[in-house]
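[job 0417] fold request received: Potassium channel family protein
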Amino acid sequence: MSLWRSRRTGYYILLVAVTTVIATFLYNYGMATLENRPQPLYRSLEVVFQTYTTTGYGEDAPWSTPHMNLLMIALQLTGIGLILTGVDVFAVPWLRNALETTAPTTAPDVADHVVICEYTSRGEAFIEELESRDREYVVVEPDEETAMDLHEADHRVVYGDPESTTVLENAGIERATAVVADSADDMNASIVLSARAANPDVRIVTLVEEQRLGEYHRIAGADEVLSPRQLLGESLAHRVPTAVTTAVDEGIEIGNDLELVELSIAEGSELAGRTAGEIRLREAYGVDGIGAWFGGTFESPIPNDRELDTETRLLVAGEPDRIDELRAKATSTVLPFAAQHAIIAGYGESGEAAGDALAETNTRVTVLDTLEMEGVDVVGDARDPTTVREAGIDDASTVIVTLDDDTTAIFATLVARDLNSSATIVVRANNPENVQKLYRAGADYVQSLATVSGRMLASTVFEDEEVLAVDRQIDVVRVPVGRLAGQTVVDATVRTRTGCTVLAVRRDGETITDFDPASFVFDADDEVILAGTDDSVRSFEAQFLA
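[job 0417] inference complete; emitting structure tokens
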């Protein structure tokens, strides 16, 4: 609203007018009756304004009576008050508007960058991936307040409608290497059409909420369509202990003779209740212990004095035969061959994908959702204990929570854990900051949708880095050796400096897994396959690639 049209300004002008009229009549009356010096009203009005503006009183001063002097003191204080109020009403807003920064509408000095259309929690994870690689980006954000927040946080941002070809040109799309459309599914299709019109050769990647709508993104011109919810649902299903998968997660094959596996410790197994120092993974089983999750916290290397229990998940790497031997030791001697019962709370894209994955096992699945639809067995709120009991929580071995709201998911996790203390609870977190909160609520495994999306985008957009496991809490990536060239793993102290473990080396199209870290020297054209947390991989990139 214009400063001169605001209600506050009107009130101030009215206050000045009323005060001036009253002061003029009082002064005129005082001069005539108290000082015996009658004068015209316009002369009294002049003196009042001289008082307000502190410019002096001319020939009227001094005054002989105490009443008149008190009146003048009151007028002087009134003038000061009106001046201060005027500064607050006029000067402060004007200065604020003059000094206030505005969100940029162009990005003229950027090239070879990624244009990210709209800022979301998924996009935030991708931006972290970009910044860790020292790669340029521009966020096109239609909300002015969000754009301002991003600008003040030193993100490169352009304020405007990402569906507008002009706005995309202002974001430098003709100089960009890729465009990422991360908005609503229908808007993403419109963004693709605008981006393709602005730059026919740019690589366009979209994220889709509903996988069935991805085909329309391709028709619009998208090069890649990613469905992180679908992948995440399948990933959560793989975390469910069943008679088919026992307690072991699916491994990642790296070359022909190396496998990376997340291994859960089953109750009653030979590993349960023993410390890492007692087990001696390398000496007894010939595998490398990359690290372990203890109650949701990943530790690498594994502390020798930490006791392994059913809440521990080991991350190990080794030859498949060796892994199988360790798998047998981590599995309970009494396997539950009877059909397991799993409850899926939330039947969206992730929940449906989890249900489809479990349908291939001997698991009996009960689906709980607030909406009545095909595939839903119990209609109700996952936060309602009565509804959860109706879904069969008492005999459920697993609860998969794939709700759209993290606050609701946290409460549903608390309810499920209270009603069944022995069930395995796996949860999808929409925002990374809620992961630890879900663990504290009682979840056994939590996967962040934003993190998975960021990894999928990084793997798709960057050809120099391949993310081999986007759906795990550990990154398994293939990157150039960078400044590792001419050094050995031991000489460079990679694990000490970064927390990453070098699993294998790619040289001349072959994967080398059996190498001596103390004597194998990297060539400049080699690639390394690393395993580590997000932070440790970023540390490696910062120290050896940036």
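[job 0417] notes: The longest strand covers residues 288-294. The chain is about 40% helix and 20% strand.
[job 0417] exit 0
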